[in-house]
Each structure stands twice: as C-alpha cells, then as structure tokens.
Design a protein that fits this description.
The protein has about 180 residues and is of the alpha/beta class. The protein has six helices and six strands, in the order E-H-E-H-E-H-E-H-E-E-H-H. Helix 1 packs across helix 6.
Length: about 180
Amino acid sequence: MLGDMPTTPATGTRQTLLIVYHSMTGGTRQMAQAACEAAARETGVNVRLLHAADAGAQDVLSAAGYLFATPENLASMSGVMKDFFDRTYYAALEQINGRPYATMVCAGSDGSNAARQIARIATGWRLKEVAEPLIVCTHAQTPEAILAQKHIPAADLERCAALGEAFASGLALGVF
C-alpha cells in the first residue's frame, strides 16, 4: 500500500511486510498504522497495510513476514480477523513455513487469549514468532467504554512503531 521499495541488498529479492488488522473502534487501526509508518521508513521493504476483510491468500503468499493486529473481543480475536484466517489458512498451508510473524492486540483488560489464538494458527502455518505479542490495554470495561472510539496513548503507539521498525529492519537485513 505504501509503494514499492528497492530490492533487499542482502537477498536480492523484494521483501514485503504484510500488516493485517481489524478495528471497530479505531484502537487497533491506530496501532497498525503506527507500525506501518515506522516500517515504511526501512529501505528495501515494501509494507502493505490491509484490513482483514480485504486481505486474501495471495497477499499472504506474496509476503515475507506478517504483523497481525486485532482487538480482543469476548476473550478472543475479532470475528473479522478469524474470517481472514479461515479464508487464507489452507491456501497458504505448507507454502509459508518459517516466515516471521508478530502480533498486536488492543484489549480492554487482558489480550492474552487473542494473542494465543493467533499463535496457534501461526504454529499450524509453521511461522516463526519474532517478538512477544504487543498488547495495549485500554481498560474499557463498561459497554459505553468498550464501544467508544479509542485513542491509543503516544507511549503505546511508540511501542507499536518500534515493533514495525524492528520487524522491517529484520526483513531488510535478512535476519528473519
């Protein structure tokens, strides 16, 4: 989405970081955008930011690494994110083994179940986790707070940016 970048000197091939996200209240979108903008500063890496409803198997197959970003809904990844995995899982199975991934979760209180679900899917795909799940807790506990538009604090967005930057650097250098 952010345009083509030069080929990676270390490998001679274009490296694409695919960031797939879903967001109903804006929190996860802000996190994914922060990671995307930081990753896009890395030369040699093409960064694609796609909403989970718009991402398909070909996007997964053509990427060198993945950053999955989801809200935690009812102690689970969002349904739209689950739909993304349902639509792409078998088409990518056995074709993306060993590729790196990381996870970001925007949660009201915990986030660990959503991260664990993505880790289980990534294990089935035989992906390699390159960072601990980044969980941002909004502390939204009432129906009104849960449904309200989110504003992720700058410090948390900086953590998301650092993850995006480190991931893109690792791809560009051939570390992953």
